[in-house]
Protein 1
Amino acid sequence: MKVSVIGGGPGGLYFALLAKKAWPRWDITVYERNRPDDTFGFGVVFSDQTLDAFKAYDLATYERIRRRFAYWGDVDVVYKGKVMRSGGNGFCGCSRVALLNILQDRGRELGVQMRFQREVESLDEFPDSDLIVVSDGIASKIRTANEAHFQPSVDLRPNKFTWLGSTKPLDAFKYFFRETPQGIILAHCYQYEPDRSTWVIETDEATWRNFGFDRMSETEMLPVIEGVFAEHLEGHPLIPNRSLWRNFPTITNKTWVKGNAVLVGDAKATAHFSIGSGTKLAMEDAIALFEAFRTEETVKKSLAKYDTARREEVEKTQHAANVSLAWFEHMKRYWDMEPVQFAFGVMSRSKQITWENLELRDPAFVREVNDWFSKSVNSQGFDIDVKNPPVPMFTPFRLRDLVIENRVVVSPMDQYSALDGVPGDWHFVHLGSRAVGGAGLVYVEMTCPSPEARISPGDTGLWNEAQAAAFKRIVDFAHANSKAKMCMQLGHSGRKGSTQLGWQRMDYPLDSGNWPVLSASPLPYLEGVSQVPREMNRKDMDKVVADFRKSTVFAEQAGFDMLELHMAHGYLLASFISPLTNQRKDEYGGSIENRMRFPLEVWNACRNAWPEKKPMSVRISATDWAPGGLSGEDLMAAVRMLKAAGCDMIDCSTGQTVPYQRPVYGRMYQAPFSDWVRNEIGIATMTVGAVTTADQVNTLLASGKADLVALARPHLANPYFTLQASAWYQHMPQFWPPQYLSGRDQAFRNAPRERSEQTDLRIKARPASHEVKEVIAKKVA
């Protein structure tokens, strides 16, 4: 095989040496535009897992890199004059130029040819190559020249950053947050060899302009930055190396393969520097490409396998990087937080590191977070035992006069099992068992204020006395046998109504017996399939308002503790809010103020009919996940209007407005919207969406992303999620029904042993090399 590698970065070099080692007869040449010792940047970062991969694939390379590593186990968040340290993180850094020289030398030993100062403009320059590996970086000329084929997408992020070095030695990875008259500015810092450290300076564009960096040369900006971080530099200078201010480009490509050419490294995909994965991704690309050739028979099959099998891991890393970078883009949002919560937010920002991850690494740090959280709850008038505080999920929460025992919520889940809107035995068992299961708040599925407001014939309703009485039976049982509070969620299906049951053809019209549907505008949900809704007129609006008001009165008669209005998921009230579904030309269309007019009319009618001492919330779709949908500015404006109208909490969901949505899924994927609403507007929020563990619940609460956490599918599988978590965390004050006390005692006895066994397994499974573990252990000691 004749192989040409375009670009002498870590990804291209590592693939070249791995392939040459495995197949010595291959003719492999690396073409690099720069000289051997040229590099732009200072240090690179590797995790434990990446280290073990190096060791497995080429021990000689690993040993040489290992000898150049600077190790650290601690991360310091320096914020408002306080240093918050989290230990046990296990990262390593080394000089980028040293890494490149090691890879170059190892490649030469194995017979890889190197051609430096050789610019490659086109794939046509290698007509006789069997394989062309394109690793020519973020600004890849090959990708750009073949843009129509690779179909790259470049998302240029708003923050400004520049890459600098220093002679300042550091004993940990450091985040230096500084508030200046110009704005907030941050340094991401780590040591990569003796007396050398990397300093990545990041800030928003407004602060960047306030400093005048847009008008300064590299030489002029250095003393300004040195002045900002003088306390931390302690007299050491900053060192430039083509340290231009840039905006980070998040790059993806629809395909990574063109014929016999394949993209690797930053040419293929980028991950923000805040998770230290750029070099890691490039070298893991090399390993994945090497593995594809080791398992497949032809170049075509090998590249096809790489292009598919590698994507999941790359997209997962990019998603974590995107969540991480968004945290830094909104540093100002968290600036009023206490230092310990701020530090926990920094550590858990990408969602890859959670409460129990951190507890495993540094129990003292998590204990400090836990102590702070319990004291902050006590400051709101509660009486938690601060000497033995519960984890965040088992702290109480107050909305108006309602006190919720813990922060776990059973999310509203349609059961499609009502008869004429009346909840039956299925609902009694479904809701009753989840109340007994320990959740602090249990939501009833979206319940409709009229027969024509239903999604399907199986929906629950609250338009008559029989329905109210059936709900009262459920609520009375929950109140008598648990401490769960019960929330009625009222909603009107709008254009998504008169459809089949959820386990049939969801969103498709009934085969017979359809009823007319309403919406803000006459737009069917599924074009050519769904009914065309009637655009609501004033008479329709008056009826819907009256229906909601009547259902609110019935909800109070049934004894519900809380009321929520459903303004999400493309249903009737949501259809007014989203510009994708509201094309009206009257006073109910156009601006967000107009689009919120009718939802607020319904809100005010219900709030006036609902007891003042009881709270009300609203479920919203914070994004439509579709072009032209609800903007961030309109979301903030809508929430401000709801808050001004007396809304106590925003239940943050997303999407389901249009069938062509493109959600970005992942664990806790909707939490950033709850975070945004809570910390920008200053209103209580509930988050939902792929939250599956008690660990995640604690993470979301401690980092300030939400006040309550709702779980749907986990509660379908396990009604006793909360009771089991109380045993896991040894929270004895959690209420268990007296009939279950013997089960509680056994669970509390078994949990410490089970937790200890799981912790031991997690420690043994951590992919740190022995050398790294030994160095970190010595530093911790």
Protein 2
Amino acid sequence: MVRIAGVQFVGNADKETNIRTAIRMVREAADRGARIICLPELFSTMYFCVETRREYFDWAEPIPGPTIDRLRDVARETGTVLIAPIFERAPDGRYFNSATVIGPDGHLIGKYRKSSIPLMDTARFAQV
């Protein structure tokens, strides 16, 4: 039987705090026998997709990039599969809410990209 862990924590405005929290919780889940560990959506930031602010785009990173590279090391160390959703800045300048899948050997297995639409104009839709 494969044990799966869903990690949950409240995001902080400080990215480094979130990354350290995630790494600590991944290690705890692995110590408890989890072999597949899923981090919260946009785990390295606060969940910001309810509004649009220019400064949020500064939080985006490439994949691979600094945050995912750190998690690749943790996946290798713990021998776990990690699902790590971050705010991705693609090479072509587009932005995605992406879930990166990292194998137990630290290699990127793949990623799932989705486009979230922050802050829809509900007044406009109410008129329809």
